[in-house]
């Protein structure tokens, strides 16, 4: 299918990009990696009058550590750049591994972390592990900028709090005492599949006590969600297989999955329980290795 006609814009700076979005209004769509936007245009689900490409904004492709702030990733960082980052592999291997399982190599070369976040779909792989690592985001527009915890960005399936004219500039993973983290998902094929269910976990273990924990679920509700009751059941407790199984049951009980072609709500709820227990054990073992 032919794509609809549109005007193509290539701003040279973030300021210029924001000004263009203000000027063009609702007729403009932002183009980052294009793996989602171009597909929607080809199948007739999207017909913008203007495409504002961010391809020239190289400042948004960096991954660096800023003392006192943490690891900062530009929104245009590709999935493969995350996977091959020595910095991320050393500090938070769970994030590169999540990026590696997302899609084919061609898609991972083009797709961006910003696009994976801004689409707001509950099956996205990077938001769960980023939320488990307590990430925050910076949104920029011609009116200024604002930062927020990533978990506050999502309001529902494909619904976020991003305002007209705003761009996601970067994501920050703060320095923290986390001892282990992981992301596990179940898909309908070996690689590159959307998550039927995904579970991200980060833990802080001292001795045999689980001092802190964050559990984040994908494809288990209309949006990415924290399993807070399961977290509360674990926090401050002595680690045991029984405790982890209880947390899995708690996470399954508070999940809100739906029936779809990829799995029934009951099937997804069962997966939440199984994957939560496994992810907790893997993250805890990573801290002891």
Automatic annotation (TrEMBL):
Pfam families attached to this UniProt entry: CO_deh_flav_C, FAD_binding_5
GO function term, MF aspect, one: oxidoreductase activity
Domain FAD-binding PCMH-type as annotated: residue spans: 1-178
SUPFAM superfamilies: CO dehydrogenase flavoprotein C-terminal domain-like, FAD-binding/transporter-associated domain-like
InterPro entries reported in the protein's UniProt record: CO_DH_flav_C (IPR005107), CO_DH_flav_C_dom_sf (IPR036683), Diverse_Substr_Oxidored (IPR051312), FAD-bd_PCMH (IPR016166), FAD-bd_PCMH-like_sf (IPR036318), FAD-bd_PCMH_sub1 (IPR016167), FAD-bd_PCMH_sub2 (IPR016169), Mopterin_DH_FAD-bd (IPR002346)
Alphabetically ordered keywords of this record: FAD, Flavoprotein, Oxidoreductase
Record-linked PROSITE patterns: FAD_PCMH
Protein name: 4-hydroxybenzoyl-CoA reductase flavoprotein subunit
Origin organism lineage: Bacteria, Pseudomonadati, Thermodesulfobacteriota, Desulfuromonadia, Geobacterales
């Amino acid at each position: 299918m032919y794509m609809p006609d549109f005007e193509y814009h290539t701003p040279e700076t973030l300021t210029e990009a924001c000004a263009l979005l203000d000027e063009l209004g609702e007729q403009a769509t932002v183009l980052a990696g294009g793996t989602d936007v171009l597909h929607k245009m080809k199948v007739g689900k999207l017909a913008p009058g203007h495409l504002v490409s961010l391809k020239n904004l190289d400042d948004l492709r960096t991954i660096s550590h800023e003392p006192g702030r943490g690891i900062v990733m530009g929104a245009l960082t590709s999935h493969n750049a995350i996977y091959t980052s020595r910095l991320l592999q050393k500090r938070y291997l769970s994030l590169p591994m999540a990026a590696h399982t997302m899609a084919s190599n061609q898609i991972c070369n083009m797709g961006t972390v910003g696009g994976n976040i801004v689409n707001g779909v509950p099956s996205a792989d990077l938001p769960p592990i980023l939320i488990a690592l307590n990430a925050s985001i910076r949104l920029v527009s011609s009116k200024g900028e604002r930062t927020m915890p990533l978990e506050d960005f999502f309001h529902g399936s494909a619904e976020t709090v991003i305002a007209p004219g705003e761009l996601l500039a970067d994501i920050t993973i703060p320095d923290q005492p986390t001892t282990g983290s992981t992301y596990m998902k179940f898909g309908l094929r070996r690689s590159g599949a959307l998550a039927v269910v995904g579970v991200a976990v980060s833990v802080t273990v001292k001795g045999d006590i689980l001092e802190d924990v964050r559990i984040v679920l994908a494809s288990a509700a209309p949006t990415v969600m924290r399993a807070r009751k399961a977290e509360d059941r674990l926090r401050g407790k002595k680690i045991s297989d029984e405790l982890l199984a209880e947390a899995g049951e708690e996470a399954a009980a508070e999940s809100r999955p739906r029936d779809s072609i990829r799995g029934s709500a009951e099937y997804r709820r069962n997966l939440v329980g199984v994957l939560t227990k496994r992810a907790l054990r893997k993250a805890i073992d990573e801290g002891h290795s």
